[in-house]
Amino acid sequence: MIRVRIPATTANLGPGFDCMGLALDLWNTFELHLKDGADRFLVHSDGEGIGQLPPDERNLVVQVMQEELAHLGEEPLRGARIVAHNEVPAISGLGSSSTATLAGVLFAHAIAKHRHHHDPTDLDLHFVLDRAVAIEGHGDNVAPALLGGFVVVMPDESGVLTQRVPHVPIKTVVCVPDFHFPTHAARAALPELYKKSDAIYNIGRAMLVAEALRSGDDVMLQRAMNDRIHEPYRLPLIPGGKEAKAAALEAGALAVALSGAGPGIIAFARSGYDRIGRAMKNAFTAAELESRYWVLDVSPSGTHIGRLPV
Ligand code: HSE
C-alpha cells in the first residue's frame, strides 16, 4: 500500500543533547503490503541487521504500528507483509531504530487514512512527528529523519517545537565499532542532575554549533563542538572511543562527536575522508574491536512517502 524511505540520522552533534540532529545520506526502506499475509505478520528484512531482526509481530515496525493504531482509536491489523531494506547499521548511533519507529507511525497513519477512504500518502506530518517523538522520548533522530537536513527539536506541552536550520554542505565520516552499546544502556549511564556550569557550557556551545553549521564557520565548529552532558559519561564505556575521537582530529577532522548515543563516532570534515575513517578504524582495532566507516553527505531531504498498488 505504501513505501517509506527514511534516512539515517546523527543526533546530539556534540553539545545539542536530545535537541539537534542531522539527516545523513544512508537509507532504510519499508514497504507495507496489506493484502498478503492477512492473518499474520511477515517481515522480510534484507541488508543491515539481516537475520537479527524479528520476522513477525515482534518486529519494532509492527509493534509501533499496532500501538499507534490503538492511539488513533483504530482496530489493530490482523496481519500484513512488510518488506524492509536496511542500509543503516543497527545499534550504531545512526538512528536505525528511529527509522523503524517512524515507519510504524507512518504506516498506522496511512492505514487510518486508507480505512477512511483518503489517500494513504496524504499524511499530517506535524501529527506524525509529535507521535514519533512521544514514542521515542526524544526527537533528535525522528525529526531530521522525517524532515531532512539539520533540525533543532524540542518536545513541548502543545506539540513538538521544531526548526529546520539551513546549513552549508559538509561531509561526515562515521566509524561504527562492533560493540554492543544500545541506547537504553547509553542513557542509563547519564546522571540525573548536572552542575550549572556544565549546563551553561552546553547551552552556549549548542547555539554556536548551529550557527557554525549555518554559516560555514569551520573554526567556530571546531571550537564549539564539545559536550559535558553525555560524552564524558559514555565515551569511556566504548573501548577505543576516546582514542578514535582523538585520531580523527589528528587526521584532519574539523570536529568529532559521539554519533547519537554511540557507539559510532562522527567526524565533520572538508577533505581527507578516508584518512579520517582509517584513523578511527585503527584506534578501534588497537582496542581489539572490528569497525566499519562510512563517508556520508548530509541529506537535505527527509522521509520519502510513496504509494504502492495495494
Ligand atoms: N539524544 C539521544 C541520546 C540520541 O543521546 O541518547 C539517541 O540516538
Describe this protein's structure.
This protein is an alpha+beta fold and 310 residues long. It has two domains: 2-165 and 298-307, Ribosomal Protein S5, domain 2 (2-Layer Sandwich), CATH 3.30.230; 171-297, 2-Layer Sandwich (Alpha-Beta Plaits), CATH 3.30.70.890. 36% of the residues lie in helices and 24% in strands. It is built from ten helices and eleven strands. It has helices at 60-71, 96-115, 125-136, 142-147, 183-188, 196-215, 218-224, 231-234, 241-250, 273-286; strands at residues 2-11, 20-33, 41-47, 80-86, 150-154, 161-165, 171-177, 255-258, 265-269, 291-297, 304-307. The strands form two sheets. Strands 1, 2, 3, 4, 5, 6 and 11 form a seven-stranded mixed beta sheet that branches. A hairpin with a 6-residue loop joins strand 8 and strand 9. Helix 6 packs antiparallel against helix 7. Bound molecules: L-homoserine. The site of L-homoserine (HSE) has 13 residues, from helix 5. L-homoserine is lined by residues 11-12, 17-18, 138, 140-141, 183, 186-187, 230, 260-261.
Brief synopsis:
The protein has 310 residues and is an alpha+beta fold. It has 10 helices and 11 strands.
